[in-house]
Design goal:
67 residues; alpha+beta; Dodecin subunit-like; 60% strand; elongated; Dodecin-like; Dodecin; Flavin-binding protein dodecin
Length: 67
Protein backbone atom coordinates (compact mmCIF):
# COMPACT_ATOMS: atom_id res chain seq x y z
CA UNK A 1 0.00 0.00 0.00
CA UNK A 2 1.36 3.44 -0.96
CA UNK A 3 1.11 6.41 1.34
CA UNK A 4 1.02 9.87 -0.22
CA UNK A 5 2.00 12.91 1.82
CA UNK A 6 1.11 16.49 0.87
CA UNK A 7 3.11 19.56 1.87
CA UNK A 8 2.46 23.21 1.11
CA UNK A 9 5.15 25.49 -0.31
CA UNK A 10 5.35 29.15 -1.29
CA UNK A 11 7.47 30.21 -4.26
CA UNK A 12 8.02 33.33 -6.33
CA UNK A 13 9.46 34.62 -9.58
CA UNK A 14 10.03 37.98 -11.22
CA UNK A 15 9.24 36.43 -14.64
CA UNK A 16 5.88 34.61 -14.53
CA UNK A 17 3.47 32.40 -12.63
CA UNK A 18 4.77 29.39 -14.56
CA UNK A 19 8.32 30.22 -13.51
CA UNK A 20 7.24 30.59 -9.86
CA UNK A 21 5.74 27.07 -9.93
CA UNK A 22 8.91 25.70 -11.53
CA UNK A 23 11.05 27.45 -8.90
CA UNK A 24 8.99 25.89 -6.12
CA UNK A 25 9.28 22.43 -7.64
CA UNK A 26 13.03 22.86 -8.16
CA UNK A 27 13.58 23.77 -4.50
CA UNK A 28 11.30 21.03 -3.11
CA UNK A 29 13.03 18.45 -5.31
CA UNK A 30 16.29 19.12 -3.45
CA UNK A 31 14.95 17.47 -0.29
CA UNK A 32 11.81 15.53 -1.28
CA UNK A 33 11.80 12.39 -3.40
CA UNK A 34 8.98 10.60 -5.25
CA UNK A 35 7.02 13.74 -6.17
CA UNK A 36 3.81 12.80 -7.97
CA UNK A 37 2.06 16.12 -8.51
CA UNK A 38 1.93 19.80 -7.73
CA UNK A 39 -1.35 21.67 -7.27
CA UNK A 40 -1.41 25.46 -7.44
CA UNK A 41 -3.64 26.54 -4.57
CA UNK A 42 -3.25 30.31 -4.86
CA UNK A 43 -1.64 32.89 -7.14
CA UNK A 44 -0.71 36.49 -6.44
CA UNK A 45 1.23 39.32 -8.04
CA UNK A 46 3.18 42.04 -6.26
CA UNK A 47 2.65 45.51 -7.74
CA UNK A 48 4.69 48.68 -7.52
CA UNK A 49 3.12 51.73 -9.15
CA UNK A 50 1.38 50.35 -12.22
CA UNK A 51 3.81 47.46 -12.83
CA UNK A 52 3.86 43.85 -11.64
CA UNK A 53 7.19 43.30 -9.88
CA UNK A 54 6.88 39.60 -9.01
CA UNK A 55 4.55 36.63 -9.00
CA UNK A 56 3.87 34.33 -6.07
CA UNK A 57 2.23 30.92 -5.77
CA UNK A 58 1.15 28.68 -2.94
CA UNK A 59 1.41 25.05 -4.05
CA UNK A 60 0.53 21.68 -2.58
CA UNK A 61 3.14 19.07 -3.45
CA UNK A 62 2.15 15.39 -3.25
CA UNK A 63 4.78 12.67 -2.93
CA UNK A 64 4.88 8.95 -2.14
CA UNK A 65 6.38 8.00 1.20
CA UNK A 66 9.01 5.22 1.10
CA UNK A 67 7.89 2.02 2.74
Amino acid sequence: MSIVKVIEVIASSEKSIDDAVKNGLKEVSKTVRNIDSIYVKDIKAHVKGDKITSFGVICKVAFRVDE
